[in-house]
Every structure is written in C-alpha cells, then in structure tokens.
Specification:
Layout (H helix, E strand, L loop, with lengths): L7 E2 L6 E7 L11 H15 L4 E6 L2 H11 L8 E4 L13 E5 L2 E8 L2 H4 L4 H9 L7 E8 L6 E2 L4 E5 H4 L10 H12 L3 E5 L17 E3 L4 E6 L8 H12 L10 E6 L20 E3 L2 E6 L4 H12 L4 E6 L14 E5 L6
Parallel strand pairs: 2-3, 3-4, 6-7, 9-10, 12-13, 15-16
Antiparallel strand pairs: 1-5, 2-17, 5-6, 8-9, 11-12, 14-15
C-alpha cells in the first residue's frame, strides 16, 4: 500500500539552515581539473555561507584537513565538515528531500542508481542513512528511484518534472506511467503533475533533469532555458518546451508567469562536444540566488533577468565553466536542508 501522508515537499525558497555539498577529490572524475574545481567549490561554499551553513562531505580525515585549509577565512557561516565517503559530488540527486506539515518535518531518502545505472552509486545511495547522527528529524527510506534534480514544486501542491527522466530512462523499470506518477505524488505529498515532454540539452547525462530546464522562482513564476539562435541544435527542442510551458496553468486555472533565459553560447569540452550549460541551474539560499556564469556576454542578461524574477533577493554569480565539465552546476552540486532539519 502507498504511504499516506499529510506532509508536503517544501519549495526551495523555504527557510534554510544548511546546504549539503560533497567536495571533489582526486578519485572522482574531477581529477584532471582538481585545482580549478576546488577553487570554484570554495567560491560556492563562500556564497552559501552568506545565508546558511555549508555542510560538506569529505572522503577521509586527510581530505577534511585539506578542505579546512582551502576554506579558512572564506565563509561567513562556519562550514561543518563530515567524513563520509561518496562516489560522486552531485549530492542534489542523493541528498534528502524535505517535507513539512506545519512545524513538523520529514526527510525522504529515495534510492539513487547513478542516473539509470550509468555510474557506480553504492556509496552515494547509502549517504543519508550513514548521516543519521546529524538529522534532527525522521529520515524515511523509500524503495523507489528518484533524484532531487528531477523534481520541482511551486509549494502549492504542484510537481514539475520531465517524462524523459521519470518515465523513459533506466529507473523504476516495470512501473507504468500511472504507477510512477501516483507513487511520486503520494510520497512527496503533492496533488498534480506538470509533465514536460520536450526540452533537452546536449551533453546532459541525467536524462533531462528539470533543474537545468525550468524552475519555479515562486508559486507564480517559472523561469526556463531558451534559445534564440535558429542555427543552434537546441532551438527546436527549447521552442517546443516553451510552447508546453505556455499551456500549463496554476491550480486555480490562471497561467504561470513565464520568463525565458537564453542558454550561453556553446560550451565545449576538450573533445569538442557540447556541454549542457544553463543559467537555470541556480540555487536559492534564503535571501540570495546563486547562479552559474560562463565568462560570456549572456551572463549579464541572465543575471538581470533573474534579478527581475527575484526582486527581494541578491543574485550571487559563481563560476560555471568548470562545474559544467562534469555536466552540472551549483544546483546539482548541493541540496538545501531547511531550518530545523540538522543538528549542527
């Protein structure tokens, strides 16, 4: 029987206490650019620390000491470092998802299978249970594969996600669309799903996570990745996605306020392959919004547009060129931990 709950998934703009990170090290895919990416993780931790405690996973005691040295004097809220080995740094997809009912909270620990068994994820899949000593509230493990980067909520009972990731990938095989939708809505305490069929970025190995394509800024506004260059291979896909978004409405039937942000010019890896760069992979941390930038003219437009979407927030740019080498951004690299969830 499905688990019934009155708890509901918190939107990202709910008050946050800490933000989970997993620091790059020499035994990860970051090895070729370790010095560069560590500098960017320092910048990301420093940005987070303006508003919350960076909660940083380390591989071992030596790694912890190394990170402490990197962060010395950089953070406003002192970081908390925990030794807990992991396979991958993209903790958005294996960190706990927070639900709330009034002042009560619950952390959900879904299964993580390395984005459809693409990568080894045994350590990552057990992280939340092994962090039991830091959780201040119940951690409930669920025998179902779901990644934090694949889901968005407006805080009003709506789930925004992509069919490609939840339905057409190597996750939860054997479940029908109806079973998957019912399971996800029930576990997250949500009422309805807005499915995107279109929208994809070249180089994305997550099977079209929503957090690189379209995001809620508040209960009324969706900001999304767009492409105005008709010669760009993304153009037809993102145009189709824009049309789908225009057909969505809030629970009361009113349309969402839709805001487009063009993706940056092509970001390529050493082999000339396109990387899935997007300004939509931003992170809301209380009164700031952390956004990746790519050393191009489009950065300024993206920052201004996001500032218009978040008039009460400060937009904090962080380097995105190195994060995107492993196909992610600041949202992928973090998981927010709402107020009251963590013993610090």
């Amino acid at each position: 029987m499905p688990h019934t709950t009155q708890f509901t998934m918190l939107p990202e703009w709910a008050p946050q206490q800490a933000v989970l990170m997993a620091w790059p090290h020499a035994n990860t895919d970051w090895a070729p650019w370790l010095e560069l990416i560590e500098a960017d993780y320092v910048a990301l931790a420093a940005a987070i620390s303006q508003q919350a405690t960076p909660l940083i996973l380390c591989q071992d005691e030596a790694h912890k000491t190394h990170i402490e040295g990197k962060l010395k004097g950089q953070c406003q809220h002192s970081p908390k470092l925990i030794v807990q080995p992991y396979n991958d740094t993209w903790c958005r997809d294996y960190g706990p998802i927070t639900l709330a009912e009034g002042n009560a909270q619950q952390l959900l620990d879904f299964c993580f299978n390395g984005w459809g068994d693409k990568y080894d994820a045994q350590l990552d899949n057990g992280i939340n249970k092994r962090l039991a000593q830091i959780w201040k509230t119940e951690l409930r493990s669920i025998d179902f594969e779901l990644e934090g980067g694949s889901i968005e909520t407006d805080g009003q009972g709506t789930l925004l996600t992509t069919r490609h990731c939840l339905l057409d990938s190597n996750r939860n095989t054997g479940y029908s669309e109806q079973q998957i939708e019912a399971k996800v809505l029930t576990e997250l305490g949500l009422e309805r799903t807005l499915w995107l069929n279109s929208g994809a970025l070249l180089g994305d190995d997550t099977d079209s996570h929503i957090d690189n394509l379209a995001r809620f800024c508040n209960e009324n506004t969706i900001v999304y990745a767009s492409c105005g260059d008709e010669t760009d291979p993304h153009y037809p896909h993102l145009q189709a996605m824009a049309k789908e978004l225009a057909g969505f409405s809030k629970k009361n039937g009113e349309p969402y306020n839709l805001v487009a942000i063009d993706i940056p010019p092509a970001q390529l890896n050493e082999d000339g392959n396109r990387l899935p760069a997007s300004y939509i992979n931003f992170l809301i941390v209380n009164d700031i919004v952390i956004v990746p930038v790519f050393k191009c003219a489009q950065d300024e437009v993206a920052i201004k547009t996001l500032q218009d979407c978040f008039p009460q927030h400060t937009i904090v740019p962080v380097p995105g060129n190195n994060l995107i080498r492993q196909f992610g951004g600041p949202h992928c690299a973090t998981m927010q931990l709402p107020a009251g969830t963590v013993n610090l």
